[in-house]
Amino acid sequence: MTLALILIIVGIVLILLGVFVQAAQFLLWIGIVILIVAVIAWLMNVVKRNA
Fold it and tell me: Rounded to an integer, what distance in angstroms lies between the CA atom of residue 18 and that of residue 23?
């Protein structure tokens, strides 16, 4: 759960950097990918806990 939270925070920070800094536009895509991985990790954790 802690790893998913860290990934969500890192993803949001990279998305914000990618939006505000045009030179670092690839950070936007890296942030989106990290955010998706974090959401998948969180969902797997929730499913595992309920099963």
Answer: 8
34, with CB counted inside 10 A (0-12, 13-18, 19+), is: buried
- What pLDDT score was predicted for residue 1? 67
Cβ atoms of residues 22 and 43 within 8 Å: no
Instruction: Please report which residue ranges of the chain form alpha helices under DSSP H.
Output: 2-20, 26-50
Overall average pLDDT of the 22-46 stretch: 82
Could you read off the pLDDT of 4-18 as tens digits, one per residue? 788 888 888 877 777
Nearest residue to 19 (alpha-carbon basis) of 10, 31, 8, 9: 31
